[in-house]
Amino acid sequence: MTGRLAFVESPVQLLNVLEWAHARGRGTAPAAAPAPAPSPAPGTVPAPDPGTSDDLRIVVLSPNDPMSRGQLRRMAQLARDEGFEVHWQEARAGRGALVRTLRELGGPLRAAERVIVGDPFSRYVQLLLTLFGPRHVTVVDDGTATMEFAAQLAGGERLVRWHRKGDLGPRELLLAPVTSLARRRLAPGPGRTVEIFTSLPVQAPPGTEVTENAYAWTRERFGPPPLARGADLVGTSLVETGVVDADHYLRVVGELARAHGATRYFAHRRETPEKLHRIAVEAGLQVVRPELPLELIARRGPIGATIVSFPSTVVHTLPLALAGTGVKVAVCEIAPEWLKATASPRAQGFLAGVASTASGADRLTPRNASAVDRLEFG
Predict the structure, then answer these.
(1) Helix (H) or strand (E) holding 125
(2) How confident is the model over 30-76, as pLDDT tens digits?
(3) Using CA of residue 21, residue 93, residue 290, residue 76, what is the dihedral sign?
(4) In which element (H, E) is residue 61 found?
(5) Among 101, 108, 150, 234, which is least packed by CB within 10 angstroms?
(6) Residue 201 three-state SS
(7) Euclidean distance between CA atoms 280 and 265, whole angstroms
(8) What's the pTM value of the predicted model, to 2 decimals?
(9) How far is CA 145 from the centre of its chain?
């Protein structure tokens, strides 16, 4: 078997595949941009171009939502500019897409020496891993779920996203055999190594190698950024995932904007238009829908001298990407009263851990858990 194959479903996953390749001395921009390769025939995954900088092939399992697709298109072009082959797979394009995707990717997966995945909780990735167990697996960050994956792998638990409740529904029961097999193929064992490439503070599960992602490619490729006056706020999808009450979230966004002199709100790609409209009207913020992952947007600038976020991956990644620029990152902790009654019992502890372990960020804590509009640096 030869070669390496990456499956990505989000812009951040693709960014971190590029960081992983760069950390191994690969993926530097070519001296002269090569002529565009002809598009492959539908239903095929191209072989590596002899003129590319690596034998790494990247397969985008395209999502449906327009913002994610747009960011992925731009990230795919950045990857091609770095000399990598990128195959765009319409994995969710209507009836028959799943079967077609599994059939088309089965051969490349069986031929790969190493498989890189960005979301071990993804049903698509889990289904692909049932086709063939690679000898070497690398998991790159796709948000704070990496922390949960490492903990569940170490504890021998089944793979469940942190914001989901513990009970198995009909769909989870149907897919339980797939999840169980995928978990075994994402764990180290005889003839298989597992690497976690991450910017997050995770403990290496037994037999697993954890490699630091320092965002070296991002820093070398972009910036340093010009700084804008005031602060920028970073949005999250905590409301959309059913964790945080929308009214509490909007009240705190408005208070943070007033306290820090923020004028812009960088939207998460999963935030709804209705919520973003309320943020623009009620908090008076300019809502920005980034065309690239925020690490790249911030590095290119202009960016506020202070960036304020709720607990999310960016409170770990932005201090790395913006090292040496003078930008301060702050994380606003989540008070228990902000959580919805239907939120997972694990949500509060998980979010508190994300905030408390962000060593490169200042902490904003509620003075009084019942007073959501009174915040101070901790």
Answers:
(1) helix 123-131
(2) 333 333 434 444 444 444 443 344 689 999 999 888 888 999 999 99
(3) positive
(4) strand 56-61
(5) 108
(6) coil
(7) 8
(8) 0.84
(9) 8
